Amino acid sequence: MTINKLPASTAKVKLRNGADSADIDPLAESTFTATLGAVTASPTANTVLDRLKALLTGISLAAGSAVIGAVTQSGTWTVQPGNTANTTAWKVDGSAVTQPVSLASVPSHAVTNAGTFATQAAAAGDVAHDAVDSGNPSKIGMQARTTDPTAVASADRVNAIADTLGKQVVLPGAVHDRTLSGRANFTNTTAADIIAAQGAGIRIVVTQIAVSNAHATVGTKVEIRDGTTVKISMQAAGAGGGWVQAGGYPLFLSTANTAVTARCVTTGADVEVNISGYTISN
Questions:
Q1: Which residues contact residue 25 at a Cβ distance below 8 angstroms, ignoring those fewer than 6 apart?
Q2: pLDDT (tens digit, 9 = 90+) per residue, 50-92?
Q3: What is d(CA 274, CA 52) in angstroms, rounded to the nearest whole number?
Q4: Predicted confidence (pLDDT) per residue in 94-105, tens digit
Q5: Cα separation of 152 and 144, whole Å?
Q6: Are strands 143-144 and 161-162 parallel, antiparallel or unpaired?
Q7: What are the Cα distances from residue 137, in Å, to 115, 122, 126, 160, 268?
Q8: From residue 252, how far is each of 43, 172, 231 by CA, in Å?
Q9: What is the pTM of this model?
Q10: Which residues, in sequence order, are bridge partners of residue 113?
Q11: CA angle at residue 50 from 44 to 56, to 5 degrees?
């Protein structure tokens, strides 16, 4: 059916398809929208249906007033910024989730040390002095030395030292590289060095003395000296007399950069003097 123009006096036109006999008012667009229902005829050949197509195509939903339904994303979407000119930046709010942060992108900030800060307790052993022993022992390390370290001031903390095999050095004694000894033979009263002076600031710690007299009849006193100062004096009788001094402590310490010497008081004896010790730097 083709309707080119309806007279102005026409109020309604009846369109029916079998059981549907509802009237349609051609002057009221809402009547078309509400009553006509599905239209299967080609709108290009029918002025009324062509108008109906335009009405249906132009339908829009008011903002926030209707919900079309679930939307499923598929494929790749292009997201445009907040305006069509692409000049408004997107605001991203990550307050509800944990966001990764690169330290390289974090600007520097001044730190104010006002307020109270928690500090970590200093390291300490797990068993106090005079408490019952428990737990496993911890290894300790020492500094391996072939020379003495620089002397520190009194009451300063120092490193424990050992030789290069890990043997701890304790007094009396020194690392093997610091031990020394000397000997001399005397047949008159002229003094001689047993251990030469060791240099500026170096002292000799005497730990052992051995004296013997090989003369058959002549005995003599023998002096062991710090330079020219007598430290020890004892008799060495003839025919093998003499003495040995040794112990777990130093017999004496020389003056810095001073030789340990010996001298026979009586001439004509045949005396051997052997002295051992070590050096220190203070």
A1: 11, 12, 31
A2: 777 777 676 666 665 555 556 676 777 666 655 666 666 666 6
A3: 133
A4: 666 677 777 777
A5: 18
A6: parallel
A7: 40, 19, 10, 18, 62
A8: 129, 12, 8
A9: 0.51
A10: none
A11: 130
